[in-house]
Amino acid sequence: MTYKPLNINLLKNNLSNKIVGRNILYYDTLTSTMNKAKLLAESNESEGLVVIAEQQTKGRGRFSRNWISVPGQNISLSILLRPSIEQLAYINMAATLSVCEVIKNYTNLNTTIKWPNDVKLNNKKISGILIESQADSTKLIYAILGIGININFNPNNHLEISNIATSIYNETEKITDRTNFLISFLNTFNNFYFKIKNQESIVEEWSSKIETIGKNIEVNSNGVLIRGKAIEVTKQGDLIIELPDNKRKKITAGEVTLQSN
């Protein structure tokens, strides 16, 4: 490695008594942390496994988009979870809130959430969340939570994302210790996951950070473009939009683009 690696022993020592992080796998290069976590999930690995890679040759975000990252600069990981099907909708909320909270603690800067799962800082994306799950006819078997967070990365060196992405370094001009940041993130996520397991609602806290609410938007939902005004989110995290004819529609998934009001 030509970069400073994460201190995995320190990570493991700080997370050994937690659900998430009690088992950590750390790789220089993987095709995809999502694929590795999924393979282990199907081999009956217990929940809480964290798979981290410095470089992914086929890393992906939502809608199979490539996730651009540089070894030694950011955090790219996947977490194996085994929630109930009723709890699944709240995993994304826990992940985005955890990113927001830790970035606030490190930078004193306020982040927002672009529905459903992008975290933004100063109107640029700093983190993306991806969830893939497997279920049978009666229950959820597993969920894989993928997270990318731009830490010491300079998106300005990558023309394809320079106008839409940022990082902690870009915003503060300071290098952040990735190991300590990751310890804070996983501890914070553990706290939110504990709340979910104990049926404590985190919806209100999540919805308060969604920048999409109150904005005119266009949603690409399964190839269908829907335009309207984002009104609120439901208890399950679905987006309610008001259409031009004043009717309301619930959106469960899609790509949101903010429109000028």
| Spatial shape | globular
Broad structural category:
alpha+beta
Provide the helix percentage: 25-40%
So what's the oligomer here?
A: single chain
Biggest beta-sheet profile: 7 strands, mixed
CATH architecture of the largest domain: 2-Layer Sandwich
Q: Indicate the radius of gyration in whole angstroms.
A: 18 Å
Number of helices: 6
Question: What are the low-pLDDT stretches, counting only 5+ consecutive residues below 50?
Answer: none
Strand proportion, as a percent range, falls in: 25-35%
- State the domain count: 2
Secondary-structure element pattern, one letter each: HEHEEHEEEEHHHEEEEE
Biggest sheet strand line-up:
1-2-3-7-6-5-4
Mean pLDDT: 93
CATH class of the largest domain: Alpha Beta
| CATH fold title of the largest domain | BirA Bifunctional Protein, domain 2
Report on the structure:
By secondary structure, this protein is of the alpha+beta class. The chain has two domains: 8-208, BirA Bifunctional Protein, domain 2, CATH 3.30.930.10; 212-258, SH3 type barrels, CATH 2.30.30. Helices cover 25% and strands 31% of the residues. It contains six helices and twelve strands. The protein has helices spanning 8-15, 33-41, 89-107, 168-172, 178-197, 203-207, and strands at residues 23-30, 49-56, 75-81, 112-114, 118-121, 124-135, 140-149, 216-221, 224-233, 239-242, 248-251, 255-258. The strands form two sheets. A seven-stranded mixed sheet has the order 1-2-3-7-6-5-4. The protein has a five-stranded antiparallel sheet with strand order 11-10-9-8-12, with no helix packed on it. Strand 5 and strand 6 form a beta hairpin. Helix 1 runs parallel beside helix 5 (178-197) and helix 3 packs antiparallel against helix 5. The longest helix has 20 residues, at 178-197. It is globular and about 55 Å long.
